[in-house]
Amino acid sequence: MAGAVEAGRSERSVRAISADRLARPRPVYCVWELTLSCDLACRHCGSRAGKARPDELTTAECLDVVGQLAEVGVQDVALIGGEAYLREDWVDIARAIVVAKMTCRMVTGARNLDARRVALAEDAGLANISVSIDGAMGTMATHDAQRGRGSFEAATQAMERIGRSRVRLAANTQINRRSLPELEAIAALVVGLGARAWQVQLTVPMGRAADRAGELVLEPYQLLDLFPRLAALQRDVLRPAGVQLAPANNIGYFGPFESEIRLGGQSGVHWKGCPAGAYALGIEADGSLKGCPSLPSASYVGGNLRQQRLAELLENEPLLRLASRTVDDLWGFCRTCYYADVCRGGCSWTAHTTLGRPGNNPFCHHRALELAGQGLRERLVVVERAPGVPFDHGRLELIVEPIPHAG
User: Fold this and answer.
1) Which of 136, 146, 237, 249 counts the highest number of beta carbons within 10 A?
2) The most confident of 6-20, 89-103, 137-151, 304-318, by mean pLDDT
3) What number of other Cβ atoms are within 10 A of residue 318's Cβ?
4) How far is Cα 381 from Cα 336, in angstroms, rounded to an integer?
5) CA 282 to CA 194: how far, in whole Å?
6) Rounded-to-integer distance, Cα 372 and Cα 353, Å
7) pLDDT of residue 372 exceeding 90
8) What is the chain's mean pLDDT, rounded?
9) Which residues is 129 bridged to in the sheet?
């Protein structure tokens, strides 16, 4: 489920992030992969979920991790997978999170999120369940082509069940070459099913999506089409219906619609840099710790909660602190950008899985606009294939070329 890591993030945790920037950073939001076992085989899954990891945390170890999260001040925990509900003890873990006075959420493909499991989530005190929707009613083939035959029907039925419960319903969508043409229809579906929040993020070339980069991943210049449409949906569809648009960390940056699409659409709200390790954490099912759950494990695991306490790792592990990156760590276009000191290269996950290292992110609206003003655009070509393991990536190369004239 890597990639749907921010769906349903609470306004409280976002406000805390903003306030904490005036003091010493601390994590307030954690995305926890309970298991890599999954009942889907999504074509864009960054973790290549399917089989459980060989040495996943025991129930006792998970309950200890809950205590460690509360100890360091985490406020919001999102349970993901794979598929979190495939662990028999997921309800016990969720309930422990709630008892520890942290908000508990779940992000799910919902293939088998039946009425019993929804009732268990409700009883455990889950605040939010976010269901992945990558195609719209009437064009459900787009969703099923990415997540498996019958997955659209299962997901929408699960959303209806959640909507009848006390658990807040949210949705999340991967924006890629398949889903982009249906964005307005997906938004209408999300509103129609009663979701209170809709998280959107770009599909990045990691895991199975890396195997299909040419089929799924947007070209950077397609952001020129995407952002005006997101702003229009925020203004005309989502906000009037009371649905919160929650752009992920790879949606941005600093274009003319930045404030419109950011949380709540408040004037002056803008991207403030990668929060990995400073305000966000990711835990893998075997206890491995990363500053962000989506980051490629080989390069960013900063310890394991079986060997060290979370408080100690947060204090001493430099791999977790991507948010400390400075302008001197940037390269390419991002190094000379007007917003470099604030943005610091955008989403580390997106940049690293695309170009092989963070600090230069071609998926930037401001960047696409600047280049278009010069009659140029950027296009990506695959130069190195992914090896085929969880959270892996290949490498793409940027080609800067003149914008073709319409025939």
Assistant:
1) 146
2) 89-103
3) 9
4) 23
5) 29
6) 24
7) yes
8) 90
9) 106, 169
Please tell me whether the peptide bond between 253 and the residue prior to it is cis, using omega within 30 degrees of 0: yes
In this prediction the pTM is 0.91
Q: What is the largest CA-CA distance in the chain?
A: 65
Instruction: Tell me the C-alpha to C-alpha distance, in Å, between residue 89 and each of 5, 195, 343.
Output: 21, 27, 40
Radius of gyration of the chain (CA): 20
44-76 confidence digits (pLDDT tens): 999 999 999 999 999 999 999 999 999 999 999
Q: What does the alpha-carbon distance between residue 346 and residue 250 come to, in Å, rounded to a whole number?
A: 7
Residue 51: both structure tokens together: 């089989």
Give the C-alpha separation, 140 to 63, whole Å.
39
Q: How far apart are CA 70 and CA 138, in angstroms?
A: 44
The pLDDT score that the predictor gives to residue 216 is 96
Query: 93: which 2 tokens?
Result: 């873990």
**Can you give the chain as a three-state secondary structure string?**
CCCCCCCCCCHHHHHHHHHHCCCCCCCCEEEEECCCECCCCCCCCCCCCECCCCCCCCHHHHHHHHHHHHHCCCCEEEEECCCHHHCCCHHHHHHHHHHCCCEEEEEECCCCCCHHHHHHHHHHCCCEEEEECCCCCCCHHHHHHHHCCCHHHHHHHHHHHHHCCCCEEEEEEEECCCCHHHHHHHHHHHHHCCCCEEEEEECCCECHHHHCHHHHCCCHHHHHHHHHHHHHHHHHHHHHHCCEEEECCCCCCCCCCHHHHCHHHCCCCCCCCCCECCCEEEECCCCEEECCCCCCHHHHCCCECCCCCHHHHHHHCHHHCHHHCCHHHCCHHHHHCCCHHHHCCCCHHHHHHHHCCCCCCCCCHHHHHHHHHCCEEEEEEEEECCCCCCCCECEEEEEEEECCCCC
**Measuring CA to CA, how many Å separate 56 from each of 113, 147, 340?**
22, 24, 39
Within 10 A of 341 (CB to CB), how many other CB atoms are there?
11
Task: Give me the torsion for CA of 97, 101, 103, 105, rounded to 10°.
Answer: 20
CA 36, 131, 249, 15 dihedral sign is negative
Contacts of 352 (CB under 8 A, 6+ apart): 295, 296, 299, 358, 393
- Determine the distance from the C-alpha atom of residue 144 to the mean position of all C-alpha atoms in its chain, rounded to a whole number: 20
